[in-house]
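Margin note: ligand = magnesium ion.
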Amino acid sequence: MNDNVLLKVEHVTKIFGQGDRKFTAVKDINLTIHEGEFVALLGASGSGKSTLLRMINGLISPTEGAVYYRGKAVHGINPYSTMVFQSFALFPWLSVLANVALALEARGDMSQERFSRAEKLIDLVGLDGFESAYPRELSGGMRQKVGFARALAVEPELLCLDEPFSALDVLSAESLRGELMELWTGGSLPIKAVLMVSHNIEEAVSMADRVIVLGKEPGRIVAEIVIDLPHPRSAKDSSFEVLMDRIYSAIAGHTQLEMSEVGTAPGSPGLTRILPGSSVGALAGLLEHISGFKAPYDIYKLESELGVETAHLVQSIEMAEMLDFAVVKSGDIQITPLGLAFAEASILTRKELFAQRARRVPMIQWMIQMLKAVPSGELPWKVFYTALQPEFPDETAERQLDVAIDWGRYGELLDYDDRDEMVSLDVSNRKEPTVSA
Ligand code: ADP
Ligand code: MG
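Resulting structure:
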């Protein structure tokens, strides 16, 4: 009965780092994918979606447990699967045709026919006529199509997509989604199953047969929802909405509420809680909007009401939760008295309310302490960046600093000068005398 099982992930755990810097990125994941299935992986950023995908493709190996492909344990690169990333690194000096042909060459196909094969793939993804164009002449959506063509060139059985549409503008993403669905349902591809990481609930519900929700810290499966709606699907159907609501509640129910869970300062034992990548502007917009609702309000409705992407909305909601401006439960959000005060306050009071909460965020606290320890009250951005690097991968470290500085600036706790890349204490935050030299 299980002979159509393609992929089996068994009790997989991935731990990064060593000693007291150990970090469990995903914990005890069990997952089976059958032939013919389109599975979507959803979860807040940092919930281990990319890590899981990289293990499935054999780019990294699990710390515990194993990945099986057609019953055989995956060791090293899985030759039956391939990955499409958020944005593809195309070779700028090669034409579209050469970029795709290169993927064939990489698997040892040096035949003259490789070019006609590449051409077919280019047609397949809808880039007919662009064979001789160079990457810089293409739009983001078209470049991503070349990425798809390259991934398809290896004729993978399992196509893994890591947020393949999230770097595209709304229209390009929409049209590329449509084309992928056409390719998939049309059966013109050798692909037997698709596993897609998404940040967008509507995208997952409109495309997948099954949605798996990951929670974070540690990354683990918290819900699995079967989407048994016929294609094409419409987000306006009530059955579609019901599923959206269920998934939102699975996701939102796993973001943390308590201040005690905001983590520790960088460099001290324990985990530094990742700051959600949202701005004060987005937070204010969210709070103003929900301040009108007395009762808990359906989160999924906010996406269209506010006209924001799921990813951004989830981050703003996390920010609101982290600062105690809102409470989230079972897919509903409700503003707290503090959040209401913020929403209704003048700009000055807003800054004060915000500063009171933001200075309790360990990352910001840590920055303030570092700055207070130097007489000048300022330190190069690089110093913070270097200190954060052991805790976060490069990109995350940079983003985390950006967020912390952005919040700190709004709350008039921190300041940042672009020209000399110096972070400083805001003048109003220097009341305590600093040790003078
Ligand atoms: P997602 O794709 O869901 O956003 P990731 O799989 O990229 O999440 O990351 C999950 C967690 O593992 C994050 O906290 C991330 O910082 C951490 N992580 C990922 N890769 C590494 C690595 N190579 N070293 C240390 N930590 C990592
Ligand atoms: Mg990721």
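Residues 79 and 156 are 8 Å apart (CA to CA).
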